[in-house]
Design a protein that fits this description.
nine-stranded mixed sheet, two-stranded antiparallel ribbon, 13 strands, globular
């Protein structure tokens, strides 16, 4: 068994369908199926059993998956040690949503890079929470910064609770805080229909029996802000963006009752590279300060 086969086994166990596992590995699905069958013949055991359109891990397969993860973790740890000991820059990849990226770049990264100047941090820009999860699963990112919840195959390290606020163009006659009832009929820019964040906001609207007027539906942060800057709509966004909104001349108000989301660093269930462990420690230290 080689490292490539170990990655195939772990990816198939994590995604539970050959199609999704193959996509995460950037190979064709028939090639992955053949590779798994060849490995099962080599080992003389069945690792995965068909279940509907997906697969389930057998009892023997669970043991193999556990050992495969441990072996891949060891390889990642060796690579991390090599990066620490080399004269070149190590790279840490962090996936972040558009609404949380400014806080990552402006608050978390400066403290980390000051202590680890030899590490180059690459921010993997993701359209939303699902994209952050996929970036970690596909190993395009070591860590992710997103709001919760995320699927249970990822490990979460909550950092803070961020308040969701109403950001509006100047001139609107609204109290502060804004009662939820005031959202009824309000012109809003919202995430794209069908996205996780849009479903959560729609659930909130349903809970408080309000029906805003949807002026813009997009997952592009600049599109939201432009709609507010031009006076077309208001926006529900994180308190962490209030400073940026204030600089743009916009008005930030709390909601009543307050709505908050838990922000967390998330990662796959494996031993993290040392540089990622260092970032996590720095982020948790900063959130406790």
């Amino acid at each position: 068994m080689n490292l490539q086969q170990l990655r195939y086994v772990v990816a198939t166990a994590e995604h539970r369908t050959m199609t999704d596992a193959a996509r995460s590995l950037y190979i064709a699905q028939p090639a992955l199926s053949r590779a798994i069958r060849d490995l099962e013949r080599e080992l003389g055991m069945t690792l995965f059993a068909r279940s509907g359109r997906g697969v389930v891990v057998t009892a023997q397969g669970r043991r193999v998956v556990k050992l495969a993860r441990e072996a891949l973790d060891a390889v990642h740890e060796i690579e991390s040690l090599s990066n620490h000991g080399s004269t070149g820059e190590a790279e840490l990849r962090i996936a972040a949503t558009p609404s949380l990226e400014p806080g990552l770049a402006g608050r978390l990264l400066p403290a980390y890079t000051a202590e680890h100047p030899g590490v180059r941090v690459h921010i993997v820009r993701c359209d939303g929470r699902d994209a952050v999860v996929n970036a970690i699963r596909d190993q395009r990112a070591d860590l992710g910064l997103t709001d919760l919840p995320v699927p249970t195959d990822l490990i979460t390290h909550p950092l803070e609770r961020q308040e969701i606020v109403l950001i509006s163009p100047p001139g609107l006659e609204l109290p502060n805080p804004v009662p939820m009832s005031k959202l009824d009929g309000m012109r809003l820019a919202l995430p794209a229909r069908g996205s996780v964040r849009r479903r959560e906001l729609d659930a909130m609207f349903g809970k408080y029996a309000v029906s805003p007027v949807v002026v813009l539906e997009t997952d592009e942060r600049n599109g939201w802000l432009n709609a507010v800057r031009t006076g077309q709509a208001s926006l529900l966004w994180y308190r962490g963006m209030a400073e940026q909104a204030g600089r743009a001349g916009l008005v930030v108000r709390s909601l009543e009752p307050a709505v908050r989301r838990v922000i967390a660093v998330v990662h796959a269930r494996r031993r993290l590279p040392l540089i990622a462990q260092d970032f996590l420690a720095a982020a948790e230290k900063g959130s406790a300060a």
